[in-house]
Amino acid sequence: MSARGKEADKMDKREWAEQFRQQVLARGGVGPRARYTPEQKQQAVEYVRERQQQGESVEEVARQLGMSSWTLSRWSSAARRERQEPEGAGLVPVEVKAERAVARRGGLVVHGPGGVRVEGLSVEDAVALLRGLR
Question: Which of 25, 52, 78, 100 is the most buried (most CB within 10 A)?
């Protein structure tokens, strides 16, 4: 996907998150007593799953949606149990980048889902790390 396409997708996601927030506000607000419809819960879980695959944390996604990260994590766990997906059992694509400062030291930076970041790895260490995720 081109840089322009990625940016447009990012804007679409931000717009979707804002619309979600507005729908929740229209139903009576946010906070500890907010009530979400089953459809809103499902939409939020799908959104957080998609954003995590793109490397964002639950906390970042929760801020975008205007809700508690604890609630969003709880919903995601419940959805995983319903689908009988063991937590962390599947491999997810990660992107390995050499950053300038780290590259000078000869290391790699690995960004994983949920905001995980590992710096200063050799290629062999990165391979061992990724194999250990199986």
Answer: 52
DSSP per-residue string spanning the chain: --HHHHHHHHHHHHHHHHHHHHHHHHTT--STT----HHHHHHHHHHHHHHHHTT--HHHHHHHHTS-HHHHHHHHHHHHHHTTPPTT-S----EEE--HHHHHTT-EEEE-GGG-EEEEE-HHHHHHHHHHT-
Higher per-residue confidence, 6 vs 24:
24
> Model pTM greater than 0.70?
no
Cβ atoms of 45 and 85 closer than 8 Å: no
What span, in angstroms and rounded, lies between the C-alpha atoms of 18 and 51?
15
pLDDT > 70: what percent of the chain? 69
Rounded to whole angstroms, how far apart are CA atoms 108 and 105? 9
User: What single-letter amino acid sits at 90?
Assistant: G
Query: How far apart are the C-alpha atoms of 66 and 90, rounded to whole Å?
Result: 28
Q: Is the pLDDT of residue 103 over 80?
A: no
Q: Which two tokens stand for residue 110?
A: 């690995």
